[in-house]
Protein: alpha-L-fucosidase
Organism: Porphyromonas macacae
Amino acid sequence: MVFTLFLSACGTIKEHTHKAETAPAPVMPVPTRAQLAWHDMELYAFIHFGLNTFNDLEWGYGDTPASTFNPPHLHVEQWVTTLKAAGMKGVILTAKHHDGFCLWPTKTTDYSVKNSPWKNGRGDLVRELSDTCRKHGLKFGLYLSPWDRHHAEYGREGYRTVFLEQIRELTSSYGTLFEYWFDGANGGTGWYGGTNESRQIDPQTYYRYHLGGELLRKNNPDIMIFGGTEPTIRWVGNERGVAGETNWNGYDYAREKHYTQAQWGMSDADQWLPAECDVSIRPGWFYHQREDHQVKSAAELVNLYYKSVGRGATLLLNCPIDLEGRIPREDSLSLMAFYRDISHRFTDNLIAGKAKVRISASAVRSKKFSAEKLTDGDNETFWATPDSVTAATVEVTFEQPVVINNIMLREYLPLGQRISRFSIDFERPDGSIVKDHITDSLTTIGHKRLLRFRRIEVKTFRLHIEESRGPVCLSELGAYRVDEPLIAPEVRIDANDSLLLFARDPDSELFYAIDRGVPVRYEHPVLLPDSARMVTAYARRIPGGKESKQTVKELGVSHRFMQIKEDLGAEVHRLFDGSGFSAFRLPDGVRRLTLCIRDRQGQPAAMAVNRLVYTPDQQRDARGHIQRYCVLSEGKILAEGEFQNIKNNPIPVEIPFSKAVRTDTIVFEVLKTVDDEPFCSIGDLELMRAD
């Protein structure tokens, strides 16, 4: 009897030891091998180039001749070497945008490079770029717009065959592709072979994405697919390059109530559909000379990196090609400075391989999964807790106090995403505990979580995993002292013409200058004089004195002088308060605003004006954006047109007038709203002076 009990106990111990030495069971869903490789890319480039570049458009109508595509000094080698030096792991090219113009000599249409003067019609840009990417060790991907505003058969059976044939050409002739993009813009007005009409389709069935998916995977079994009905990754729900602070890799489109849900993912979805953050280095996706001064700075790109890669997503950064056929100098300089920054800031992990650092965990599955695995530099090893433990603490203690302001975390994703809530507290050298130093929402971790906070001197810090979907599996932990880039302040002019400055760095002081005046330290809102035409502002770090780039804001007609003729209530002043977040919603059916310029006595005061700046509603899930518009003065049309892609990219847009006019009244008419909403919501309006 005793011997039997002994054998039974030995068996129990052996079973327990075996479980402890094996990894935890996966928590579904889990990524494929190809998805894991895609996660590791983290940063890659988008290239928008085509007829739109030479016609100064974002969404071509499909009616501009192929002969307008003629870059005089196209230099694909410059694109690729620049992007590689900027840390990009791959490149995705817009082989065909909505205008239908193809950058390869397709057999499916004459609307392509073969009928352009570039290289006498013998060029193939897809071939040049794919070959050059492989030469320099970058992965290559393609974007093919399903919507074709040029093709006469779009919306009919004929184009369905054309579309699949274009996929076949691109996926069988240009080598291995790492990603393929099906844009979500579908149907609407277009040239369509000269009919100039609107055509609507059901994208879920018309394009036969299931057949397209088969073609993609035939020659590229590990390809990532964006869009359509066969996705392996998801759009993040905005074109600002920002993922949610909570970002689950699971997603279920059948349960999606609004596309912006994609920022956060779903914790209980069955499919692994990680988020890709797409954003342009300029306001637009294609090159426009007027945006040369609006290239995102290195500091702004670093900020986007933290809000995308640093929240478990990837960053697809668009770099438009200019009229010469090159990445512009301004863009290149910003890209290089950005990569220098992010490549240096995470080189010295203050807790990795340091003899004078002690790391321990409150629960460990076994020695194979010890807390030391968090700092061994190997993403294939990880700290894990026993099956019954879903909350645990890691403690890091330094022999001597250190100053840190960045922490990096990484889950072991082959076994699924688990952690849903965590916290970090810091113990100062005097023994005091600081619990709320990090202001981010500390929920998910995923592929990578980067946390930035004000510098703090610590002797110990503790990572508390508070909630997890199963045993904790964490593969990496890093602490860093980073010299953060100093970002220029945000400048806003409110409804009373008061200057408001907002610091983007907590350890800085702000300065401003009106017109060409001497810079003054900003301490509180400043009432601007009526004569002011421009405000310049910058930040200065404390201590050290390092200064940011300047924010320059041109001032329009004084907000105090602007009135709306229509009786729309007291809140109409929000149209002129300088903030797109305090949007004003026009009553249903109201599509006309009469902007009146008045002096201090309320009398008409004519001024020379030459453009109107429209800022869409910036609130989350905003609706009622303006799509088509008309601007008039004294019955004469000054401007009319369409805001292309305003739904996905709701940035401030300038409406230039055909000529400057001296007037006290401007009429702004809304001809169509996005998705034909019955109402219109406007974030802000600013009438710009010509003198």
Notes: Residues 490-554 form a domain with the Immunoglobulin-like fold (CATH 2.60.40). The first strand starts at residue 43 and ends at 47.
